[in-house]
Amino acid sequence: MAPKALPSRNVPTAVMKMMVPRVVKSKASNTAPAANTALSTALEIVPCEFPVTLSLNQSASLGAELDASDGKTLLVRTVSGGALGEWNHLHPLLSIQRGDRIVAVNHRSADAQAMLMEIRVAGVLRMLVRSFRKQSLQSQSLLSGAGTWPLKPLEESKKRPETDSGDLYAGMPAPDPEKKVTPSKDIFADPPAKEDLSLAIFLDIDGVLRKLESVPMITVNGGTLPLDLGNRALLPEALRALKYLIHLTGASLVVSSEWRRSSSLLEEAQTALRALGMRVRGVTPVLRPREDLFVGTKLDPDKQATLRLRWAERRAREITAWLQEHREVRHWIALDDLDLTIADEAAIRSADTLKMGPFLVLVDPEVGLTMSHARQSSEWLLAKKERPRKMART
Fold first, then answer.
1. What is the residue range of 322's domain?
2. Does 19 reside within a domain?
3. What DSSP string describes 33-65?
4. According to the model, what pLDDT value does residue 240 have?
5. Which segments in the chain show pLDDT lower than 50?
6. Torsion angle, alpha carbons of 340, 121, 283, 217, to 10
7. In terms of DSSP bridges, do strands 280-283 and 331-336 run parallel, antiparallel, or are they unpaired?
8. What is the spatial distance between Cα 28 and Cα 38, in angstroms, rounded to a whole number?
């Protein structure tokens, strides 16, 4: 059977249009430009690390809220003036922003608590900051090479092009030739002295590393302890002074404070000192006070003065006992807020107890240890004249 012939008449135009394949536009095509823009913007964001040097000697605070929750870095939550605010003002392209991370402070890294302690104590901070920045003509040249942004002092940029948009300092005011800024010297810039076991520092804590201003006290076994142990914050200035003293002399620390009576308090003090690179060599023994000592009459003694006298005499015996077991120590000092010289009188001091007066660095308990104390103590410890371990008896 022969196939039927196709109709000879022309196919209507409407039918022809229906037979043409349709090209369907994707809805996503409308958002393609925006997606491409976001992608290009994301590709411009690059990770980088750059050094920041701050001096806290002239600024009251760091001026930032830091988060140490990851244990290894310090996350910048906010920047609110202080030393960081001044840095951001002078270095707009290297400003520290929210979300940046401080990965190193001086010689401390990978330890958030140690870095926080360094910030509290050190006067000059050399920090390494990790950030994500958008590339620009300025930053592309900085990011080339090792990936670290080298800082160029403002004073060195004397010939500053006015129209060069690639200049790091473009748009910043030219330096005033009549106003020279002298950078503060880092007291820890010189190499530290090697540990010297012939030098010892007997360390009290309350009144030396911690203020005793308006703190209620209690008496325990002839010694006085602060009643408010909830706030045991140590003074950053005092810790810095102590670190400087050890940095200069290499002397070892011996805890003579009443904190040694409590294992938790002693561990807390050792942790704070260890975070700053200061090792505790040991503690003095705990001896009982002499009940035969009193100030005033035996029937009506001055209780407070008697307590101080017994405490000073007991501490002098404890320091002497430690020195007798460590004959290698030739020079030593005692950092204390208690005047130990009141126990130096012949009528009070035992025959085998050392005099404290020549070796006492008396600290104001409402101020704490200062840099002046540290310099004075270092001169005493490093004096060339040999001091006798035991003073002449009087």
1. 199-381
2. no
3. HHHHHHHHHHHHEEEEEEEEEEE-SSSS---EE
4. 93
5. 8, 24, 26, 28-29, 39, 42-43, 137-166, 214-220, 222, 227-230, 384-394
6. 50
7. unpaired
8. 15
User: Which two structure tokens, joined as six digits, stand for 149?
Assistant: 């942004």
Task: Name which of 332, 319, 318, 328 is nearest 377 in CA terms.
Answer: 332
Tell me which H or E stretch contains 236: helix 236-249
Instruction: Please report, as a single letter, which amino acid is at residue 379.
Output: E
Cβ distance 169 to 222 under 8 Å? no
User: Domain for residue 192, yes or no?
Assistant: no
Please state the domain count of the chain: 2
Task: Kindly tell me the number of DSSP H helices and DSSP E strands found in the chain.
Answer: 9, 13
Q: Are residues 137 and 225 in the same domain?
A: no
Sign of the alpha-carbon dihedral angle for 14, 18, 22, 25: positive
Q: How far apart are CA 314 and CA 308, in angstroms?
A: 10
- Work out the widest C-alpha separation in the chain, in whole angstroms: 147
CATH number at 140 reads 2.30.42.10
Phi (first) and psi of residue 222, to 5 degrees: 80, 0
Rounded-to-10 torsion of CA 360, 362, 365, 366: -160
How do strand 101-105 and strand 124-134 relate by DSSP bridges? Answer: antiparallel
Placement of tokens 């996350």 in the chain: 75
The residues facing 51 across adjacent strands are 128
Is the CA virtual torsion 380, 381, 382, 386 positive or negative?
A: positive
Amino acid, res. 393 = R
In whole angstroms, what is the distance from residue 331 CA to residue 245 CA? Answer: 14
Indicate if 229 and 368 belong to the same structural domain. yes
Whether residue 343 contacts residue 313, with contact meaning beta carbons closer than 8 Å, is answered with: yes
The CATH number of residue 288's host domain is 3.40.50
pLDDT at 228: 47
Q: What is the pLDDT of residue 357?
A: 92
